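Interim report to the steering committee. The following record documents the input for Anaphase-promoting complex subunit 5 (756 residues).
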Amino acid sequence: MASVHESLYFNPMLTNGVVHANVFGVRDWVTPHKMALLVLLSELGRAGPQLGLLERRRLNRLLLPLLQGPDMALSRLRKAIEECCPQLAGSVHIRLKLMAEGELKDMEQFFDDLSDSFSGTEPEVHKTSVVGLFLRHMILAYNKLSFSQVYKLYTALQQYFQKDEKKDGADENEMELTNPEELDGKMEKEELDGPLREEEIACSGPLSQKQAEYFLSQQASLLKNDETKALAPASLQKELNNLLKFNPDFAEAHYLSYLNSLRVQDVFSSTHSLLHYFDRLILTGAESKSNGDEGYGRSLRYAALNLAALHCRFGHYQQAELALQEAIRIAQESNDHVCLQHCLSWLYILEQKIFDSCVLLEHSVNKSLHFGLPYLASLGIQSLVQQRAFAGKAANKLMDALKDSDLLHWKHSLSELIDISIAQKTAIWRLYGRSTMALQQAQTLLSMNSLEAVNVGVQQNNTESFAVVLCHLAELHAEQGYFAAASEILKHLKERFPPNSQHAQLWMLFDQKIQFERAMNDGRYHVADSLVAGITALNSIEGVYRKAIVLKAQNQMSEAHKLLQKLLIHCQKIKNTEMVIRVLLSIAELYWRSSCHTIALPVLLQALALAREYSLQYLASETVLNLAFSQLILGIPEQALNILHMAIEPVLAHGAVLDKGCAMFLVAKCQVASAASYTPQKKIEALESAILNLNEAKTYFAKVDCKEQLRDVLYFQARLFHTLGKTQERNKCAMLFRQLHQDLPAHGVPLINAFK
């Protein structure tokens, strides 16, 4: 980003047709574009009685963004007016043509006639209305111009009009050379472009203070609510540099530059802009005017606090801690309790990177409630709930705490925190393995309307909460075998959060994980291996875990075991309990494949103890299924069937389709193994029941296109049909098995040595 100090003393008198005496002191000035707007207002007053209600309504909706927005080309202004009222657009064009092709006295007379709009008992325009204030500002700015400046304005008006005439001539020539079909396509494309798209509005010259404030507020609102509608990072930075070129002390422009740099993760530029923002805030005296002598110190402590937040965002925890200590010191000297509460919240965030402590957080929540800071108090409750969820607290207690925070949200209309709370509930239910409840919460958030007023056409709620919920929704659909629906959700995510946006990494990770699972189900391990690098770049722990899964599937047992052992030590160190349990289950499976069945039992019992301690019900059920499989291998299928009935219900209610299929396949295996000691009649009933369970497992596996598991089920069914003497069904299963067996490689692993 170019340095703003290069233009500290640049103060032009005329730039790009803009006449002004001092860009730092004048709030508004006359430009050719604003003269065109004055002509529009004049013609609107004349044609008022003749216009229909719909046309007047359209013009009134058009006027406000025209008055507040940056200058635009005359052709675009004409097009915008034509869409509302073609007759009025023609009148404006004729009036401007007469003025531009006439003499200087015509422009003088035009400004003299503007004052008549306020005369009479029932004036056309009220002085205090939006239009009235604009007219008065323009008349005042014109009257302050010297004769030479009036002449320059008139020359600029002529150039403004002639440029539009030349463009019309070029368009006519192009129409003669273009065939009608191409012309229709071009016109349709132009009609699709709205008249006031921010991408089409360029700040070619210095903006007035009102225009600049409108531009900055609009871009800041778009960055918060719908980043896709805001200018691209490079384009926005160019416009901001242009603003700062004419007014380097414009503090708000520096802050928007800071937000823009955060979008592209530019730590140097964001730090540079943030420091300049607070420097300009102090230099211009904006804080001192509103806060008395306290303003200077207030800027300093909040500057240090924002700098700490910036460093924490980029992972510079040592620098963040130093900046936070400075903010705390200044806030204590000034006895600023509000700033101290913000500091306390950030202190907790920094402390939890080192060790888990609820003391700071509980103190922060109590103090925030005491000083009437509901936003901070709610964020503290959300963080406390999240920490206690990872600590294994009961779900009902966490939901009660979130209910209390929801009361704060609705009482104070904190819509952003309402979204965060629902997204938090979705994630908690997913952590506890209750996918049905997670789906319900996700749908609740997506069906809600934002409490914040945003412009028409702006996508509401383009926040991290919505990105998280949509990602969970995509994964839930993929787990149930609805891959087309998951692809549609991910496609929507890509449109709503482009790759250069700050929340794009969320859907990128989920997209890679879903592709990985599909490749593994399909037996395409080389494809899954190629996806590991992308997952690792976004989440190193997930990447290492998935690499171990690929190695295990490729029968590289020793390499997979080494990787899983390293990952287990790391996850235990950082207290990632969910991943610890998953790693333990994978290690147990490695022991099965290596025929070390007795060694797998202590590992599974350790995983089960952790899952129950941290209330991870679904992982506990999955661990019980693995224990049942171990008992089947060790020759006690009756005991395996007993514990299966305890664990299979949560899997069938909330589990992924693949897990449901594996569970039903395991039940069938246990039924067959138990039938060996039954009477002939009871044995036939048990085998027929096992065949029904295999049919259900086959349906689940087919839904996620898991060919390896399908092959195993068909083999097992063929053997059972052969035992029961059902030759036709046996031959059908054998044929299907042969087709799959030819497509898939055989790893030489016995059928009974693999649970999943």
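The CA atoms of residues 578 and 616 lie 8 Å apart. The committee is asked to note this result when reviewing the revised timeline.
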